[in-house]
């Protein structure tokens, strides 16, 4: 079995996975337990459904392209408010209520994450025609300065990070949380990146769990449409991360009680494992 003493483990806690209050408490307890057992957990959270709820209350329409929210000026304000505000503080409070000491920050703090605005080509699933779409205030990680996260860890605290970054002109950029977690895991040279979501892992055409995925297989599943929507940035993030030296990434179901502990501390693990070729992750 793997040893995780003093190992950095980045846990991406998806907005769907945090829906159930009981599971949210379990998650917070598990993070505290990891810290107490000598692991250094870093939580990066999403909040897609939580953003959607506030946008709806404000009657602001929102749409996605290949799993990324088209984010205009009005929307980015709401995204930052929800992610760096309510969602971040809710997770911090839950961890602290279970005896941990969490500190909530966003990628803007101490210039943790500088990002570059992206435009994306998008293929219409019906016509298969490719279009270039301007996603607005959406970014891809450009430069990561993990100093602030190191400082928090060295002070024996647990960092909880909202996926907001600063752009080249000082503008606020909305970053997909999987992409953000991947960039941070690579910069921190984490031992593991765990992406907690609302499905068992990557599912094949028959809806069966794919237990392990190579880069080539992953790209083929994206190309043929088996992997779609929010699973695209998730898998793309995994591929980038293992290429940058993180041993392994696991996509797993955060709705299973104690998913993180089961993955790290049992032989059988869970979810879909994407590992660096040549690395032995089990
Ligand atoms: N091949 C696939 N395997 C599993 N899930 C997939 C696949 N293709 C698309 N998805 C969708 O991706 C979703 C997970 O992404 P997302 O909704 O962004 O989750 P999160 O909020 O946890 O980041 C799943 O609920 C599922 O609807
Ligand atoms: C660019 C982009 O799509 N950003 C995401 C950020 C939150 C996120 O990724 O949340 P989940 O992990 O819960 O999906 C969004 O606006 O929804």
From TrEMBL:
Write down the superkingdom of origin: Bacteria
Which Gene3D superfamilies is this protein grouped with?
Answer: Acetylglutamate kinase-like (3.40.1160.10)
Q: Which residues bind substrate?
A: 47-48, 69, 174
**Site (Transition state stabilizer): which residue positions?**
12, 234
Keywords, A to Z, come to: Amino-acid biosynthesis, Arginine biosynthesis, ATP-binding, Cytoplasm, Kinase, Nucleotide-binding, Transferase
- The reaction(s) this protein catalyses: N-acetyl-L-glutamate + ATP = N-acetyl-L-glutamyl 5-phosphate + ADP
SUPFAM superfamilies tied to this protein: Carbamate kinase-like
Pathway membership, UniProt: Amino-acid biosynthesis; L-arginine biosynthesis; N(2)-acetyl-L-ornithine from L-glutamate: step 2/4
Keyword presence, Repressor: no
Record function comment: Catalyzes the ATP-dependent phosphorylation of N-acetyl-L-glutamate.
PANTHER family from the entry? Answer: N-ACETYLGLUTAMATE SYNTHASE (PTHR23342), N-ACETYLGLUTAMATE SYNTHASE, MITOCHONDRIAL (PTHR23342:SF0)
Question: What protein family is recorded?
Answer: Belongs to the acetylglutamate kinase family. ArgB subfamily.
> This chain belongs to which protein, by name?
Acetylglutamate kinase
């Amino acid at each position: 079995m793997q040893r995780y003493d003093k190992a950095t483990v980045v846990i991406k806690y998806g907005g769907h996975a945090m829906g159930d209050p009981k599971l949210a408490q379990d998650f917070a307890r598990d993070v505290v337990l990891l810290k107490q057992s000598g692991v250094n957990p870093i939580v990066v959270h999403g909040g897609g459904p939580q953003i959607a709820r506030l946008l709806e209350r404000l009657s602001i329409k929102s749409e996605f392209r290949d799993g990324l929210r088209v984010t205009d000026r009005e929307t980015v304000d709401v995204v930052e408010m929800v992610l760096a505000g309510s969602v971040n503080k809710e997770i911090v409070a839950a961890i602290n209520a279970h005896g941990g000491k969490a500190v909530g920050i966003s990628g803007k703090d101490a210039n943790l994450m500088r990002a570059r605005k992206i435009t994306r080509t998008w293929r219409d699933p019906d016509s298969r025609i490719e279009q270039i779409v301007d996603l607005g205030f959406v970014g891809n990680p450009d430069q990561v300065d993990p100093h602030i996260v190191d400082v928090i860890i060295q002070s024996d605290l647990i960092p909880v990070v909202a996926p907001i970054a600063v752009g080249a002109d000082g503008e606020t950029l909305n970053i997909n949380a999987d992409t953000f977690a991947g960039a941070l895991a690579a910069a921190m040279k984490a031992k593991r990146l765990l992406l907690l979501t609302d499905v068992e892992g990557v599912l094949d055409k028959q809806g069966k769990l794919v237990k392990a995925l190579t880069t080539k297989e992953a790209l083929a599943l994206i190309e043929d449409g088996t992997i779609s929507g929010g699973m695209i940035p998730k898998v793309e993030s995994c591929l980038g991360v293992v290429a940058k030296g993180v041993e392994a990434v696991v996509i797993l179901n955060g709705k299973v009680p104690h998913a993180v502990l089961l993955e790290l501390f049992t032989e059988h693990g869970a979810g879909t494992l994407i590992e660096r070729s040549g690395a032995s992750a089990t």
